[in-house]
Design a protein that fits this description.
This protein has 459 residues and is of the alpha/beta class. Helix content is 44%, strand content 14%. The chain is elongated, with a radius of gyration of 29 Å. GO terms for molecular function: ATP binding.
């Protein structure tokens, strides 16, 4: 009870300023009860339709992502860039994402598998479980009846063939074709297509015509035939490398019959190609253009084109231009392009900075795994990441990444099921665990996954 002086003071204060708030005793309670009073808040997710990736680190909510569901609403483009140092989970993310996408009946995936393990590509095991034989491109096996892809395949339009031939030559030469060399190539290509009708034209035919141009080719431009031969000499020497040099066998014959373009998963195994050789960007250009004309169709199927070591594409001006057209064209037909690179500096500081910037701009989804602090800052500047995200990238542990989906930035922990784990395990050579245990785990997972995917993938 208040003493008389305090009571008089309160009464006077209430008269002047209104009723004084009642003094309340502190409340002691448990966190379980208090959470009903202080409700937690979290940023909105990407919806509940699509492929589950894992959990948001800060809120604990499930993280679901699907470019086909988000396209046109939250995403201006369905293309995706994955960045990060080796050993932080990029490969596991790619594989589980593909496996989970394939559970939808209207999905189809092509993978350019540039990483090798145990003499085969990283995706070999997953392909086996789906009953699919990877398309292994290897100069040595190609000579003995192996897989061939023909740049002059009739499935590719005449314009596409000429653009592909120019790209192959420009990548190999490291510079653009001048007008005279371009003219020699154009007339040789036109002559071969016009005169060879009983079989697929092949690169040998182009080389032969460049070395021995016909009189009509010179007369059409009112130039001497010896000039046309001289203009095409360098072009012939470059293409001869694909016909009779260190890259022979893969491109100098008709396209191998029997490649199943309707399979749910198509794996091009490039693991036998030297990653640092000129063959890799040339090979990716040929595969990309060949797929553009044979695989992408207006049939309402949602297609994913995943490229490992994608810097071979983005860092070459000529190959990047081809893929830039493919991305713009494919977007209208339900194509999501997934580019996997280690460092953004691999592409933005190279010779194709302009083309790289254009492709990066089309990638509305960016996933960044752990990087060193200076690389993280450079990545943040290029991609426009918020400061807090840039600061935590160097501290991320394996399996956790910053996801930027058209400005919706979250930190996500990728979750792998026990069934998936043996199939996405890509560093067995560096582990000390028992190979027998690994094989047993893998066998059990294979049986389970085979049953699941056989039931779900068949259209």
């Amino acid at each position: 009870m208040l003493d008389p002086l305090s009571a008089l003071t309160d009464a006077f204060t209430s008269f002047l300023f209104g009723k004084v708030e009642t003094t309340r005793l502190p409340v002691r309670t448990s966190t379980g009860q208090a959470q009903a009073v202080y409700l937690p808040t979290a940023a909105p997710g990407l919806g509940d339709s699509g492929v589950i990736i894992g959990r948001e680190v800060y809120s604990g909510k499930g993280y679901i992502y699907d470019p086909f569901q988000l396209y046109g609403q939250q995403l201006p483009a369905p293309h995706w860039l994955v960045l990060g140092e080796s050993g932080n989970g990029k490969s596991a993310l790619e594989k589980t994402y593909v496996l989970r996408q394939l559970r939808f009946r209207d999905r189809q995936v092509v993978v350019l598998d540039a990483q090798g393990e145990d003499g085969v590509g990283e995706w070999n095991l997953i392909a086996e479980q789906l009953g699919i034989t990877p398309i292994r491109l290897d100069p040595m096996s190609a000579l003995d009846g192996g897989i061939k892809l023909n740049p002059l395949d009739p499935a590719i339009t005449t314009t596409g063939q000429l653009a592909l031939l120019r790209t192959i030559i420009e990548v190999a030469m490291g510079r653009g074709l001048d007008e005279r060399s371009g003219f020699a190539l154009k007339v040789a290509h036109a002559y071969v297509n016009d005169t060879i009708t009983d079989r697929q034209p092949i690169l040998t035919d182009i080389v032969e015509r460049l070395r021995h141009p016909v009189k009509e080719s010179a007369e059409s431009m009112n130039v001497d035939i010896e000039d046309v031969r001289a203009w095409g000499l360098d072009v012939a020497l470059v293409l001869d490398r694909l016909v009779d040099g260190d890259l022979r066998g893969m491109f100098d014959g008709p396209t191998t019959a029997g490649i199943d373009l309707d399979a749910p998963l198509i794996v091009f195994d490039l693991s036998h190609i030297d990653r640092n050789s000129i063959a890799m960007p040339i090979l990716m250009a040929i595969v990309g253009v060949w797929l553009e004309h044979t695989w992408i169709r207006p049939d309402r199927v949602k297609r994913i084109f995943l490229v490992e070591e994608a810097w071979h594409i983005i860092n070459s001006p000529f190959v990047a231009q081809l893929f830039q057209r493919l991305l713009k064209f494919g977007r209208r037909l339900g194509l999501s392009f997934v580019a996997v690179v280690h460092h953004l500096s691999d592409v933005v500081d190279g010779a194709a900075a302009k083309e790289a910037a254009a492709i990066l701009k089309m990638a509305s989804t960016r996933t960044i795994y752990a990087q060193k602090a200076d690389e993280a800052r450079a990545t943040g500047r290029v991609l426009g990441l918020p400061r807090w995200a840039v600061e935590i990238i160097p501290t991320l542990t394996p399996g956790i990444a910053v996801w930027d989906v058209n400005g919706n930035v979250q930190v996500v922990k990728h979750l792998i099921t026990e069934t998936e784990r043996p199939l996405v395990y890509t560093d067995r050579a560096m582990t000390e665990g028992s190979q027998t245990t690994i094989s047993k785990e893998r066998t059990e997972a294979e049986v389970s996954l085979t049953k699941q995917l056989t039931d779900d993938v068949v259209a």
